[in-house]
Design goal:
There is one protein chain. The protein has one domain: NAD(P)-binding Rossmann-like Domain (Rossmann fold, 3-Layer(aba) Sandwich). 44% of the residues lie in helices and 14% in strands. It has seven helices and seven strands. Strand 1, helix 2 and strand 2 form a beta-alpha-beta unit. The protein is globular, with a radius of gyration of 17 Å. The chain binds NADP nicotinamide-adenine-dinucleotide phosphate. NADP nicotinamide-adenine-dinucleotide phosphate binds next to helix 2 and helix 5.
């Protein structure tokens, strides 16, 4: 039997949430009694992740895994529709999917840049467009996971270019939707120890200060938890000791 919380708890849709910052955020939201839809490209990986969560939280109905490519508008729109159909509402979307080719303009792979711009910039824009009608209804919030690389340039780095565009998308979106009662938060983390770094030439996060995925998840959940009428727009979270 469904409890009151099952039908009224806030609903969040997060992209690329089966690992790293996304997975930590989902765990925190579930611990707070929320409901979550999570997208990813690999159906099998998503289903395994959802099964893990069901065991961990003793709750089979609070997670909806949706296989979707975040650069395909039809798939993103279908993910939003599936979320609203399953849970009856949508309170937050988190554009979290993203990656870096870890190269630069001199030595990077142009095909990887194309993919990176699509995933890191177009994907979040598609999510905003697809989710806006439901978010206007709920007076919800859009969270975009950017980067300190989107605030401070690093030499010739196309990832930095993509995240700078995302920083701009956040403010573009805010001025579009704030009058409709929808909030927008850019979360810009510094270095975080996640699978993001598995494609780095060193195969791991570079030596030096790092955050955990949980540190960033705490910032996301804090932004989502602001009271009605409060719009936190930019949260920059660096590990102490990270210069830029
Ligand atoms: N780790 C850091 O140091 C750091 C710092 C600043 C900002 N960020 C940002 O934080 C966000 C989350 O990253 P994370 O650190 O948690 O890394 P992560 O564990 O690798 O998670 C990123 C997710 O993005 C999706 N993704 C990766 N490559 C993709 C591609 N080519 N096409 C579509 N989706 C793709 C993946 O989902 P599926 O494979 O399931 O589709 C993956 O689960 C990203 O936007 C990243 O840019 C990370």
């Amino acid at each position: 039997m469904k409890t009151e919380q099952h039908t009224t708890a806030p609903v969040t849709l997060i992209t690329g949430g089966a690992s790293g910052i996304g997975a930590s955020t989902i765990r925190r939201l579930l611990a707070a009694g929320h409901r979550v839809a999570v997208t990813g490209r690999d159906r099998g990986r998503l289903d395994r992740f959802a099964a893990e969560l069901a065991t961990e939280f003793d709750e089979a109905d609070a997670v909806l895994p949706v296989a979707a490519d975040t650069t395909d508008f039809g798939a993103v729109r279908a993910a939003v529709e599936a979320t609203v159909e399953r849970f009856g509402r949508l309170d937050h979307v988190i554009a979290n999917a993203g990656f870096s080719d870890h190269g630069n303009l001199a030595d990077g792979d142009p095909d990887a840049w194309r993919e990176m711009l699509l995933v890191n910039v177009l994907g979040p824009a598609l999510l905003v467009k697809a989710a806006l009608p439901a978010l206007k209804e709920s007076g919800g919030r859009i969270v975009l996971v950017g980067s300190t690389a989107g605030i401070k340039n690093t030499p010739g780095n196309m990832y930095s270019v993509s995240k700078t565009a995302l920083t701009s998308l956040a403010e573009n979106t805010r001025v579009l939707v704030t009058g409709a009662g929808v909030g927008v938060t850019l979360i810009a983390p510094g270095r975080v120890d996640t699978p993001f770094w598995s494609t780095h030439p060193d195969g791991a996060v570079p030596a030096g200060p790092v955050l955990t995925a949980g540190h960033v998840a705490d910032a996301v959940v804090w932004a989502l938890g602001q009271p009605d009428g409060v719009d936190v727009n930019t949260v920059v979270v660096r590990p102490t000791g990270q210069l830029h």
